[in-house]
Amino acid sequence: MPPPADIVKVAIEWPGANAQLIEMDQKRPLSSIIREVCDGWSLSGSEQFALRYADGPQLYITEQTRGEIKNGTILRLAISPGRAARQLLERIQSHGIDARLEALKELAKLSADPTFATEFINMEGIGTLAHFEMLAFTLTAFLELMDHGIVSWDLISLSFIKQIAGYVNQPMVDVSILQRSLAILESMVLNSHSLYHRVAQEITVGQLIGHLQVSNQEIQTYAIALINALFLKAPEDRRQEMASTLAQKHLRSIILNHVIRGNRPIKAEMAHQLYVLQVLTFNLLEERMMTKMDPNDQAQRDIIFELRRIAFDGENDPTGTEKRKAMYTKDYKMLGFTNHVNPAMDFTQTPPGMLALDNMLYLAKVHQDTYIRVSFCKNLLFFAANEGCNDYHPMFFTHDRAWEEFFCVCIQLLNKTWKEMRATAEDFNKVMQVVREQITRALAMKPSSLDQLKNKLRGLNYSEILRLRQSERMSQDDFQSPPIIELRERIQPEILELIKQQRLNRLCEGSCFRKLGNRRRQEKFWFCRLSLNHKVLHYGDLDESPQGEVPFELLSDKIPVSDIKSVVTGKDCPHMKEKSALKQNKEVLELAFSVLYDPDETLNFVAPNKYEYCIWTDGLCALLGREMGSDLTRSDLDTLISMEMKLRLLDLENITIPEAPPPVPKEPSSYNFTYNYS
């Protein structure tokens, strides 16, 4: 007969004594259970003790968290968090250097525990830390304590900010101290408006850029993250000034040479920070894009005159106002302006506003031959790429005027495609659709430079776009006759079974996940994989991200598949309903899923990317005999069915379906996350 749902069988350890095996009644007060355990070892003062997990992060157990205890869990009797905090404070303030160092090491570990952190902070522990020499352990503890959100960042003193900024500005400092100092300053800037101004006064951009020229990618990542934070929180009138300073310090070329073209692969966090920097930089164009031209502003009108002069240089202006006016009208018409009499009116539409005029002037001055060659095509003026992207593109770091150069490439492409389509003015929207598709397909190939982009676009001419469209249409939309539909329905179960087996095989290989609530500066991981007989989910904590498969014997926890009740995703996940759960943004919600199992337990996940999310949610659904419904499965299903149907329709004999779907990139660009700046 199974034990009642409120009874949990656990083992409790105490140094130098045999473990106690007890049945913990979850309805009893925790203090009563601790008293009983202390009596078993003849320990007095039970109020000075608490229970902690013996494995993993070894968190304290409270009335709020005791529901997470599972059958078979090993616990440890320990001094209470309040007593531990008091003892550590005393040891930190002791005169012995060795004793103080050991206390700081222990504090760095314990600070991740919210129960301990609350006690330590209530004893003015953070203020005590601020008065000591900043060692790596001290900074780690400070970060962990502040991350709990118990106290406001606004309480941080100016002297402490100066001390932390001093480590960043020093030419030679311990790597661990530098790493944590950069992370602390980033958190200060992001979490407090007043601290932004103080940090901005203490940190020199030149010194931050200097940290990008090291070989340690972690330091580079923290440096770019701090630059992004300062950029993001700067007043609007300061951002353009800051961008100019960064340009003068050659930020772009340093990132290109020391980060993008370095000898190390770009890690996910670095790629994200580069994307943030790219977006923040492009956002500076928004003001020009949303600024209408003033038709009465002579300086702005002179730019249009300059565009005409460059295009028709060498042609003598006729004498007489009327003749000159007629000639100018004809020229503006040839340049593609809608309003031939007063072309300034074309720039009163936002977007693209004045940004279009800026780009055209750049094209005319820097690529004059191209400008003269394309200026006679119809209505090129308002081509301004305004498509959203959700990933960083290395090519935008290869030129100081990367946006303008990108515009010039697009203009040349538009001119070329216009001619290939033999278009007229009425075909402008059709041509633009093709050009947008050409650019989208080329960007998806992640060209590393603008020259590579040009090469990709050369291969995507109008004929190739038509061929690709036809091929994709054949794969997705054709074969609608009843016999073909019947064949498709007959093939589909076979393909679904193959996809199911591939998903389950991936679950058997396992995946690494980041621990909830931990930032990149001190990443903690856990691994989960399905047993080879598909009957048990094994999981456990790891000290670092693994390289390859993790053996089952290293994964201490397990869940019988027979106990799993359901799988939920997104905002239905328990860990997405908690206020403290990471950052409640679209990125995390789209990657979150939870396994609900008996009696009322959950195993919470946040996938590292969309691909892993689809693999795991599909695999778990397949494991439970439910429908696999991710975008990845639908795509694989359509692709494989179309391939098999084409083979069968060609009457090829002895054709077998492949054993697994074709390999899919681990992080396809269509699944990359977006970044929210609000």
Automatic annotation (TrEMBL):
Domain ELMO: 285-443
Keywords: Apoptosis, Cytoplasm, Membrane, Phagocytosis, Phosphoprotein, SH3-binding
GO cellular component assignments: cytoplasm; membrane
GO molecular function: SH3 domain binding
Location relative to the cell: Cytoplasm; Membrane
GO biological process: actin filament organization; apoptotic process; cell motility; phagocytosis
Alphabetical list of InterPro entries matching this protein: ARM-like, ARM-type_fold, ELMO_ARM, ELMO_dom, ELMO_domain-containing, PH-like_dom_sf, PH_domain
The protein's role, per its UniProt record: Involved in cytoskeletal rearrangements required for phagocytosis of apoptotic cells and cell motility. Acts in association with DOCK1 and CRK. Was initially proposed to be required in complex with DOCK1 to activate Rac Rho small GTPases. May enhance the guanine nucleotide exchange factor (GEF) activity of DOCK1.
UniProt protein name: Engulfment and cell motility 2
Source organism of the structure: Sphaeramia orbicularis (orbiculate cardinalfish)
Protein encoded by which gene: elmo2
